[in-house]
């Protein structure tokens, strides 16, 4: 099932969408895997990506491990190609199933954005980074993601023209929609576009 678009914002001309669904269904050039440094794709988003893309994605990622928090790598997208071209693996934790922090998520998202800029992708989809086994709420995750976008812009980085923030569950989608209205950004002039669909 394709992602359900719930809201659209503009950040300095960049489209920022909030959508609900399975990130493996995104119509987007690159998706982000909130990885661990060892690149073991066990549960959560990583597990879903491995199941949908095939084990060769994990094999390719593990050849580049360990990857510290604050750095990112990319692999092909296996069976998800050509709809998705790249999976960007950005660790939010050192080992599988560890708790993480908003600070680590900010570092992970900054690393993913740098990788996306290097690859010159037109669209980047991010899940609730650090939620699930990482222990953060979707609200805390969105706050950290927006902080990273803001910091990246402030440092002169070029964002992809379209960014999709993907909430898996209805509850997470509601937290994303609530938090994006409250979030404070300095460099990203965030403005809603059109109406918002109820989550």
TrEMBL record:
Domain of life, per lineage: Archaea
Q: Which SUPFAM superfamilies match?
A: Macro domain-like
* Location of the Macro domain: 3-184
- UniProt xrefs under PANTHER family: GANGLIOSIDE INDUCED DIFFERENTIATION ASSOCIATED PROTEIN 2-RELATED (PTHR11106), MACRO DOMAIN-CONTAINING PROTEIN (PTHR11106:SF111)
Protein name per its UniProtKB record: A1pp, Appr-1-p processing enzyme
Species name for this entry? Hyperthermus butylicus (strain DSM 5456 / JCM 9403 / PLM1-5)
């Amino acid at each position: 099932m394709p992602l359900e678009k719930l809201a659209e914002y503009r950040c300095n001309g960049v489209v920022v969408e909030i959508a609900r669904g399975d990130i493996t269904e995104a119509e987007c050039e690159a998706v982000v895997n909130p990885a661990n440094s060892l690149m073991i794709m066990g549960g959560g988003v990583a597990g879903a990506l491995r199941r949908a893309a095939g084990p060769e994605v994990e094999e390719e990622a593990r050849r580049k491990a360990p990857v510290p928090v604050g750095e990112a790598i990319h692999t092909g997208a296996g069976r998800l190609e050509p709809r998705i071209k790249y999976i960007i693996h950005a660790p939010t934790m050192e080992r599988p199933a560890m708790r993480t922090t908003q600070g680590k998520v900010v570092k992970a998202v900054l690393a993913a954005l740098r990788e996306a800029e290097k690859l010159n992708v037109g669209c980047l989809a991010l899940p609730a980074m650090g939620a699930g086994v990482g222990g953060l709420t979707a609200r805390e995750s969105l706050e950290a993601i927006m902080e990273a976008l803001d910091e990246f812009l402030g440092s002169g980085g070029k964002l992809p023209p379209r960014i999709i923030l993907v909430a898996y569950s209805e509850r997470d989608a509601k937290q994303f929609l609530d938090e994006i209205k409250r979030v404070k950004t300095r460099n990203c002039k965030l403005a809603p576009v059109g109406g918002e669909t109820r989550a």
